[in-house]
Amino acid sequence: MKKENLSSLRKRKGYSQQQISDLLNMDVSNYQRRESGEKSISMDEWQKLAEILEVPLAEIYEAEEKQVIIFQDHAQNHHGIGNTYSIPEYLLEHQLKYISRLEEENAKLREMLNRNTDNNK
């Protein structure tokens, strides 16, 4: 999957693929494969790209599989960068459905408890 956000931001900032690949210490062909989606971009590489382009990671990050960034801390880890936590979108959707079902069950149980309490008075 082509990294559209990365590609368009790189161009807007005036960087060539060669310049970015040099800053990442890789061959331009390796960078081109990453930007075109032929090769995956590691989280460390995403972090470096965000630093190079001077934007928050969330602005350019595009997961291989659609994911949602659920938390990005600004504390520095031992590499001097913050951590980003993301989950696949399908997993988030599944969990939201499960939470909804549990909320419905809780409402039914509360109703049953209320009826029993009223009957015992």
Automatic annotation (TrEMBL):
Key words, A-Z: Coiled coil
In alphabetical order, the GO MF annotations are: DNA binding
Instruction: Provide an example Pfam family for this protein.
Output: HTH_3
Q: Which residues form the HTH cro/C1-type domain?
A: 6-60
Which sequence ranges form a coiled-coil region, renumbered to this chain? 92-119
- InterPro entries annotated for this entry? Cro/C1-type_HTH, Lambda_DNA-bd_dom_sf
Q: Which domain of life is it from?
A: Bacteria
Specify the protein name.
Helix-turn-helix transcriptional regulator
